[in-house]
Design goal:
Length: about 240
């Protein structure tokens, strides 16, 4: 995290109201994008209470953030905003669908079963929503200690087609096995031993291809990232580039 941002957060934590207001104002677009991503629809400051909740949660994250830690402030604030919005969804019966999406870590398969809704969402993606999705993708990858995004994923792809196809097949097997997938989501790590048995691949192949396997898998297991699938050029049913 840049020193200046860290310094400003420390000042805000020590009671500097002007710096706190500056931080909030500077990050209003980020708050808007984050809340819209979590709610799976575009929000406006004039009409949507979710943004007020996101604003309060962002302010809360300033106080709770550990400036001495390694976690990025945007990653930390995202988690705080998401938790507060989930609390809000739970208090409002009409937000059942948003709760399902926001609680993706435990309910991904149920949401993904609605293929028609996902396809419709893919068709309606706008440039602004794409920017939000790519940022969400980057934040999600950061949870797995992967510092790449969909724009430079090809740079991290294996050079040889056979290797790419092998790792894509591993990803397909991982995604379609609930036990393997639950391990990935819970521990943020590939279940190497189980994958060795399920795929017949060596530890060396799986560990070397870890980032590539996870980067592909995340696009297919997080419902709100569904529109990014067409950019990955990866067909999950056949496990190959198209």
């Amino acid at each position: 995290m840049p020193f200046r941002l860290k310094h400003h957060i420390l000042q805000a934590q020590q009671g500097n109201k002007n710096i706190r207001e500056h931080l909030i104002a500077k990050h209003k677009k980020y708050i808007l994008q984050t809340c819209s991503s979590i709610c799976n629809r575009y929000l406006t400051w004039e009409n949507d209470e979710e943004l007020s909740i996101g604003l309060l949660a962002f302010n809360e994250s300033i106080d709770a953030y550990d400036t001495a830690g390694k976690t990025r402030f945007t990653t930390f604030s995202y988690s705080v905003i998401k938790k507060r919005l989930i609390d809000y969804f739970r208090s409002q019966e009409k937000y059942h669908n948003e709760l399902l999406t926001a609680s993706a870590d435990t309910q991904e398969f149920e949401v993904l079963n609605n293929k028609e809704a996902i396809e419709t969402y893919q068709e309606n993606i706008s440039l602004e929503n794409l920017t939000i999705l790519i940022e969400r993708y980057r934040i999600k990858l950061d949870e797995y200690d992967i510092d790449i995004n969909i724009n430079n994923l090809p740079e991290h792809s294996p050079k040889h087609r056979d290797t790419r196809e092998t790792l894509q097949n591993v990803s397909r097997i991982l995604i379609n096995d609930p036990d393997l997938l639950n391990h990935l989501i819970r521990y943020k790590q590939l279940p190497i031993k189980q994958l060795m048995v399920a795929t017949g691949q060596s530890r060396k192949v799986l560990e070397k291809g870890r980032k590539y396997i996870i980067a592909i898998s995340i696009i297919f297991i997080v419902p709100e990232l569904a529109p990014l699938r067409k950019f990955s050029k990866f067909n999950i049913d056949r496990g190959e580039l198209i």
